[in-house]
């Protein structure tokens, strides 16, 4: 089988690698150039986009910010999985929030702002503190602003006045005082079966995911059930096929949806070592119409993102259960260059392996690792 993936980053690369043993050939598309590329070498393939679209059995995405003409091209062939509505909802926070509201799914209270002059009134209605997010093209915390209290209004209004809010409105939402962030990665097959990985705990620094602990500590049946019910509601509404990620804020025993990602997700990378079938394989299985693989946990696993830090020795590979996944990208500040997966049969061993890993890495690039590892014990 042949799959065409819109987007040529690390997610397409890991889909390609997962496709090899299945006999599924994955090609990627650089969506900025409308060019078909090899997902590993990134070199142009010897086919046109039209030929690759025609040749593919299925077309999928590794990220949601795909230009509209490419989405339509894929949609018209009937091969696009997940479907265009799901991808558009993931790409546009206005659509995403409206979808959540229409399904009565708890999320932070919000307003859509299409003119900066509306800000004082919105602050009046929602109170403070607030988070403002560009409705499109934001990722890793880019395109976000914080408003602590009313005294920030004028300075923020000035900064936002440079943007065209009429074309790209801003979502203004209440800052949630959450106890932690968790996410659910799951998959729905073409015939409507579901498989879920356990809820995982995510740790961010400066708006970017740095660490995922799988499974999330202290997950009650109630929390897992809340997450799965929300996932099912969304996936059924969207007639979803493939892997979907739902990011949550936990407030006491309630989960509020932060956002959804209609694709494989950074908080699912731990599955490459920690689960029976990894998220990349399960996504390919689903979109290609194959039976889903077991999502059963193999061992507690921590995923540690390698961000901005391009050179270090590989001595940590001597740590039992420690694996590196390197994306082959040029190092740049804040750029995700790879990740470690560290597995162990119990949390105490996982903790000591992470502390060992931390000794091999510069603390400034892995600012959360030490204290998290200590707190796992
Ligand atoms: P990513 O691509 O990493 O998922 P993103 O740019 O899509 O990030 P969000 O997930 O919406 O943006 O926000 C990034 C982080 O900012 C969240 O994981 C959370 O830590 C914080 N954040 C966002 N919205 C809120 C909120 N309403 N209340 C509190 N914290 C928030
Ligand atoms: Mg997010």
Automatic annotation (TrEMBL):
It comes from the Bacteria. This is N5-carboxyaminoimidazole ribonucleotide synthase. Residues 97-288 form the ATP-grasp domain. The keyword S-adenosyl-L-methionine does not apply. Belongs to the PurK/PurT family. PROSITE patterns: ATP_GRASP (PS50975). One of its GO terms (molecular function) is phosphoribosylaminoimidazole carboxylase activity. It catalyses: 5-amino-1-(5-phospho-beta-D-ribosyl)imidazole + hydrogencarbonate + ATP = 5-carboxyamino-1-(5-phospho-D-ribosyl)imidazole + ADP + phosphate + 2 H(+). ATP binds at residues 93, 133, 138-144, 173-176, 181, 204, 258-259. Homodimer. Pathway: Purine metabolism; IMP biosynthesis via de novo pathway; 5-amino-1-(5-phospho-D-ribosyl)imidazole-4-carboxylate from 5-amino-1-(5-phospho-D-ribosyl)imidazole (N5-CAIR route): step 1/2. Keywords: ATP-binding, Ligase, Nucleotide-binding, Purine biosynthesis.
């Amino acid at each position: 089988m042949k799959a065409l993936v819109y987007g040529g980053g690390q997610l397409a690369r890991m889909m390609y690698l997962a496709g090899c043993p299945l006999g599924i050939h994955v090609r990627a598309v650089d969506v900025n150039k409308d060019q078909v590329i090899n997902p590993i070498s990134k070199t142009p393939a010897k086919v046109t986009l039209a030929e690759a679209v025609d040749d593919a059995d299925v077309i999928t995405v590794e990220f949601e910010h795909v230009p509209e003409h490419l989405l339509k091209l894929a949609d018209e062939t009937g091969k696009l999985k997940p479907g265009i509505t799901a991808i558009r909802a993931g790409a546009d926070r206005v659509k995403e929030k409206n979808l959540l509201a229409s399904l009565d799914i708890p999320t932070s209270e919000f307003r859509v702002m299409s003119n900066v002059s509306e800000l004082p009134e919105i602050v009046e209605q929602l109170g403070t503190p607030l988070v403002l997010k560009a409705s499109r093209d934001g990722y890793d915390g880019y395109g976000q602003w914080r408003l602590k209290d009313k005294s920030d209004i004028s300075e923020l209004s000035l900064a936002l006045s440079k943007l065209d809010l009429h074309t790209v409105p801003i979502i203004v939402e209440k800052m949630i005082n959450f106890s932690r962030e968790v996410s659910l990665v799951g998959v729905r097959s073409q015939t409507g079966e579901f498989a879920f990985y356990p809820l995982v705990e995510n740790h961010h620094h400066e708006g970017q995911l740095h660490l995922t602990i799988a499974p999330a500590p202290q997950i009650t049946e109630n929390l897992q059930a809340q997450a799965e019910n929300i996932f099912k509601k969304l996936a059924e509404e969207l007639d979803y096929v493939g892997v979907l990620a739902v990011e949550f804020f936990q407030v006491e025993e309630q989960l509020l949806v932060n956002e959804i990602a209609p694709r494989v997700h950074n908080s699912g990378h731990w599955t490459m070592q920690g689960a029976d079938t990894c998220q990349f394989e399960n996504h390919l299985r689903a979109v290609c119409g194959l039976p889903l693989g077991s999502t059963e946990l193999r061992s507690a696993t921590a995923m540690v993102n390698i961000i901005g830090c391009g050179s270090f020795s590989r001595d940590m590979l001597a740590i039992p259960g420690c694996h590196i996944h390197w994306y082959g990208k040029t190092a740049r500040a804040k750029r995700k260059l790879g990740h470690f997966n560290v597995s162990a049969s119990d949390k105490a061993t996982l903790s000591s392996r992470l502390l060992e890993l931390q000794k091999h890495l510069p603390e400034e690039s892995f600012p959360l690792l030490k204290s998290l590892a200590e707190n796992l014990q």
